[in-house]
Amino acid sequence: MLRKMFDVLEGLYSHLRSMGLVLKHTFAKRVTVQYPEEKPPLAPRWRGRIVLTRDPDGEERCVGCYLCAVACPVDCISLQAAEREEDGRRYPEFFRINFSRCIFCGYCEEACPTYAIQLTPDFEMCEYNRQNLVYEKQDLLISGVGKYPGYNFYNVAGLATKGKPKGQHENEDAPVDVRSLLP
Amino acid sequence: MAIIYIDGKPLETQDGQNLLEACIELGLNVPYFCWHPALGSVGACRQCAVKQYRDENDKQGRLVMSCMTLVTDGMRISVDESESKDFRANIIDWMMTNHPHDCPVCDEGGECHLQDMTLMTGHNYRTYRFKKKTYVNQNLGPFINHEMNRCIQCYRCVRYYKDYAGGHDLDAFASHNHVYFGRHEDGVLESEFSGNLVEVCPTGVFTDKTLKEHFTRRWDYTTAPSVCVHCALGCNITPGERYGKLRRIRNRYNRSVNGYFLCDRGRYGYEFVNSDKRPKAPLKRQMIDGKPVHVPMTRDEALSEIGKFFSNGSKAIGIGSPRASLEANFALRALVGAENFYLGLSKADGKLLSAVLEIVLSGPARQPSLGELKDHDAVLILGEDMTNVAPIAALNIRQSVNNQPRANAKAMGIPEWNDLPVRRAMDTDRGPLFIASVAPTRLDDVATQTFHATPDGIASLGFAIANFIDPQSPAANVSGEVRALAQQIATALQSAQKPLVVSGPSCRSEAVIQAAANIAWALCRKAKPAGIYFAAPESNSVGLGLFGGANIENAAEALRKGGADTLVVLENDLYRRVPAALVDELLSLAKHVLVVDHQYSATAQKAEYVLPGATFAEGDGTLVNNIGRAQRMMQVFNPEGEITESWRWLRRLRAASGKGREDEWISFDSFLHALVAEIPAFSHILDAAPTAAFRVGGLKIPRQSHRYSGRTAMKANVAVSETGVTADPDSPMSFSMEGFSMMTPAALMSSFWTPGWNSAQSITRFQEEVNGPLEGGDPGVRLIEPQPDSAVPYFDAVETNESHDAAWTALPLYHIYGSEELSASSPAVAELSPKPYAMLHSDDARARGLLDGDAVTVKIDGQEISTSLKTNDTMARGVVCLPAGLEDAPYIEFPAAAEILRSVTS
Ligand code: SF4
Ligand code: SF4
Ligand code: SF4
Ligand code: SF4
Ligand code: FES
Fold first, then answer.
1. Helix (H) or strand (E) holding B501
2. Ligand 3 neighbourhood includes B181 CB (under 6 angstroms)
3. Where would I find the H helices in B159-235?
4. How far is the CA of B133 from the centre of ligand 2 (A)?
5. Looking at the partner chain, which of B105, B709, B716 has a beta carbon nearest the beta carbon of A63?
6. pLDDT tens string B783-832
7. Which end of chain B has fewer CB atoms at under 10 Å, N or C?
8. Does A134 touch chain B (CB under 8 A)?
9. For chain A, percent helix, then strand, then coil, each to nearest 5?
């Protein structure tokens, strides 16, 4: 008998507490954002639409190394490396991301040794037609450096570049003179 | 057998090995750089250090270089001990001080031994903070890219290039930490085997220059086991495809064939597959604006239109090809009937081929496999420039001259793998190698003696040698000087353990081939296990020869007789085989001409119909190499358009004509069985590879790596929904990454990879023992075995006619780059093809007032060939040599009588 009365009281308390909480939240600050009229703030490292960036000299950063493609768990990146006639600089002849497959995991960005491929805080890329989610290089390449303003792969790679032969990049000695036996 | 204790565990190893080899065979991960299974050890890189202990009580131990330590019974070592581990990590750390940070743009990346070893030793952050050394690169020609910054000074390249391949123009320059590997100046690497540097160099210093044009990483290729089609040796290759284009050729190890190496024609001749000129759909000739033009038609149109020509009651003539697979030739034979099937060879070529076949099928001398050439200790070459005709055979013969001097090293107790002391002990000694040829050859530098003469002169020398060995064999009438040489050669061959006689058709002389047979047979009859080895002209020459049949001239006769309306030419450019007038006649005699080929050859251009055949990379087939080894090539990728194997086109035609059932020979295996049932000589080809029903654990074998990338994007530009994977009814391989890639039989092995071993060095993980056969046996089956007790009589010696009349004898000189039809249309190879020339002995030229470089006209058979004169001080007299098979050069039936005139300059 006593036990039954206790159960009833406990149930009553639980109900009243719930109603109280609901009442309290009626006056709380709202979290729901009236998207799309109102845009929520996104963290700078939000993983959204992918871009290809340029180095500080304005050259395409991507060197067509295929590391993003192989890191991608859904295999939605495909490209072909090519070489610039004048100085042998590598660039992607085509670069395609199938965003209808992309899971925005960011592995490609992690794998990229040149900071070329970056995920951006833009997720508004819905399409009625799935085919439109296939982005080519002209859709991906931006004119800026993105998150890593100073980095230029070819300054540290050790390769000769246009107007800068061997030995003129960062942390490089002048080329070895093969005909000298001096230390 | 020796028992060694590794980290306390007793393990079995082989006597005489070094510790590194033992560890590799046991599947242990000991990092190394300078050791290479074909090159042995020099102890240069210090990467392979392990701890060795005196006995079980020794806790201290000492570091030893495993590659320089002979395995002894009861030896105790540790691989995992911390001091040796630190030592190895340090070595990498130091190597990395100057290694650049350019892996992303390095073509070696992903299959780099340096990357693998760095990972294996656990070195992952560079501690070196100072300036890096740099080097200026060189332009080494169309095959090899040079990026010297990446070098770790392991010396493998020069050891391979100079010591193994006999090259002279790659070396180590400068000193101390400035050592530079390259040429003395920019220029094309001279060796015909330079491409192997790509796989020998453990870093990205030497990489494939043709691959750079369409670079693809290792994991992104679709590959299948295949066979090189650029000469008759049948080296095993792994072609790689991406985005519908063939990207590169890599070596596929097969101890009985090419081992670790390919020649540059085989490695770089592949680009003909990507040519835009190839027919991609069935073509029909139509007159447009009064000009004949080939217009594409659909498969059904083609089959119903062409099929009619073969219906019952109509007769068709079929011309096969030595560069088409057995299957293709058989399908043609089945379509036109055996009596109307002609080998695609000229009468002269056919005669030389049958001479060779007769000898190897009936004689007592065994044909060694390509790999076994290395084991012979005395070699005589009669009338061949092996480097230009059968390149890897030349590379292996070059190794054979080390066998006798190696005995010196053995006598001093130096193990065979200890490369430097072995080479010191050999000093400049070389085993016997005698070369008799028309003109100097690329092996002359290691020859004991060379002899330059006309084909008849070479044959006479051969007959004289045979006569010295066995007086029963017919004597030749030779001068005293030649006699002395013959005796010297006979003695050298007789005192060797394993003598070898090499010859072939390049002299265009049956007598030379028969003289070679006499020598080998004489040796056999004197109880010497002599080998005989013949070069053959094309990838399936011997296979075609085994079919048996008449030649192109006979086909012309049959057409002249009438009764046949249709001529089918299979993968054959007749203009390269017989005089143009005869081809023109052939083509005009037939009412309908059908060419099935993957090349838009001169013959195809004149055909009424062209059906687009598949190259080696796009279809399955079997090739029989020069010694009768049948090897299967697996389809690598699905070609665009209507391209398919020739045998499949011919099968379809057979069905369309009503001769065969629609459902007959649909699968490769059923077709192969029909072939074997019809021609029992080929019955063993069924063993060349597993059937299409073969599975490993119920799964197919993938053509793509497990990290093949871009699957959901590569075709997304066309349609975003992925299409299914094409099924392969012909082989147990899948056109995707699905399947099981371990425990694959060697014949289906296209890519050698195990965790941690991504580079070409991974091959050791798939060999039964270091330098041994692949696990489960080397792929391929021998169709021709010797008749040890054969009593076949010796051939009669030639009558030499040493007097020269006014006319010159024109003879061909073959060129590794340029003489072979398919590779010659690949840009990199074409770049190195020789310009047309005519070569005379300097004295012969002088006697006629001609000088090197003069413009001359060579008149042969009424044709006038304007070319430039080359002179040579040692070649045969009375002979004019012309390059064979160059593109656009007119066909010449060698040997021919020629006249040489100075060109009149206007
Ligand atoms: S974010 Fe992930 S799924 Fe998308 S492209 Fe990059 S690696 Fe692939
Ligand atoms: S990882 Fe970076 S540099 Fe390499 S291909 Fe991808 S985007 Fe280009
Ligand atoms: S170039 Fe390559 S093979 Fe030659 S020493 Fe350097 S790393 Fe070794
Ligand atoms: S030797 Fe002949 S079969 Fe071997 S790779 Fe060279 S061309 Fe090809
Ligand atoms: S592999 Fe042993 S020292 Fe180089």
1. strand B499-503
2. yes
3. 197-200, 209-212
4. 26
5. B105
6. 999 999 888 999 998 876 655 556 889 999 999 999 999 999 999 999 99
7. C
8. yes
9. 25, 20, 55
Chain-centre distance for alpha carbon B14: 32
CB B880 within 8 A of CB B810: yes
CB contact under 8 A, B713 and A64: no
Give me the residue spans of the domains in chain B: 2-90, 283-346+551-751, 351-541, 808-902
- Report which of B643, B569, B514, B566 is spatially closest to residue B246, judged by C-alpha positions: B643
Determine the Cα–Cα distance for residues B502 and B521; give it in Å rounded to an integer. Answer: 13
For residue A175, pLDDT over 60 is answered with yes
Unique residue bearing structure tokens 């003069």: B854
Residue A176: inside a domain, yes or no?
Answer: no
Ligand 1 binding pocket includes A103 (Cβ within 6 Å): yes
Type and span of the H or E element at B670: helix B668-678
Taking the C-alpha atoms of residue A159 and residue B221, their distance in angstroms, rounded to an integer, is 26
> Could you tell me the two tokens for B195?
């491409």
Taking the mean position of all CA atoms in its chain, how far away is CA B171? 26
Residue pair A125/A99 in contact (Cβ under 8 Å)? The answer is yes
Regarding whether A60 and A7 lie in a shared domain, the answer is: no
By Cβ distance, the residue of A64, A69, A175 closest to B710 is A69
CATH of B351-541, one of 3.30.70.120, 3.40.228.10, 3.40.960.10, 1.10.230.10: 3.40.228.10
DSSP H stretches of helix in B562-661 = 580-589, 602-606, 646-656
Mutation probe of ligand 4 site: the residue of B194, B199, B392, B624 with most atoms within 8 A of C-beta: B392
Helix (H/G/I), strand (E/B), else coil: B543: helix
Nearest-CB residue to B713 (from A63, A98, A176)? A98
Asked if residues B714 and A94 have their Cβ atoms less than 8 Å apart, the reply is: no
User: Which tokens sit at B360?
Assistant: 């190897």
The answer to whether B331 and B349 have CB atoms below 8 angstroms apart is no
Specify the DSSP class assigned to residue B735. S
Counting one residue from chain A and one from chain B, the pairs whose CB atoms sit within 8 A come to: 134
The predicted-structure confidence for B45-94, as pLDDT tens digits, reads as follows 999 999 999 988 999 999 999 999 999 999 999 999 999 999 999 999 99
Q: Which residues of A touch B219 (CB under 8 A)?
A: 70
Q: Which residues of B8-18 are buried (b: 16+ CB within 10 A; e: fewer)?
A: eeeeebeeebb
Task: List the beta strands (DSSP E) in B199-357.
Answer: 206-208, 222-223, 226-227, 236-242, 245-251, 283-288, 291-296, 315-319, 341-342
Task: Mark which residues 688-747 of B lie under 8 Å from A by CB.
Answer: 707-714, 716-717, 719-721
pTM: 0.94
Q: Is A107 inside any structural domain?
A: yes
Sole residue written with tokens 């998150």 = A147
- Which secondary-structure segment (H or E) carries B810? strand B808-813
Residue type at position B47: Q
8-state DSSP, B463: H
B126 touches A: beta carbon within 8 Å: no
A6 is in which domain, residue-wise? 1-31
Structure tokens that stand for B187 in this block: 């220029």
Query: Other C-beta atoms within 10 Å of B54: how many?
Result: 11
Q: Is residue A156 part of a domain?
A: no
d(CA B328, CA B338): 14
Q: Cβ distance B710 to A71 under 8 Å?
A: no
